[in-house]
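Before a computer can learn anything about folding, someone has to put a protein's shape into writing. The three-dimensional part falls to structure tokens, numbers that each stand for a local backbone shape. The protein below has been through that process, and both of its lines are reproduced in full.
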Amino acid sequence: MLSEQSLNSGLIRLKDSQTLILTGIIQDSDRISVSKVPILGDIPIIGAFFRSTERTNQRQEVIVILMPQIIDDIEGSNWQGKKYQLRRLTKS
């Protein structure tokens, strides 16, 4: 079963290389497994002695970690000693 929750916290401001951790997609699952001896486990009242029930709960969550790298896109700029050439797309 997937459930959806949301939080609107406004704008987020980060410095260069500052880490932002986002969590999302939480999945909870509950499972019930029944094991029994054939025929004997189906008998009312005394059948409980010939079967067992196992319950398991499992929770999975996806975590997204963002670490933005801000690149100066001024023509001819130097970023950490490396030259980056960026092309601007123009509409024709």
In short: The mean pLDDT is 77. The first strand starts at residue 20 and ends at 36. The beta strands are 20-36, 51-66, 78-79, 82-83. The chain is about 0% helix and 40% strand.
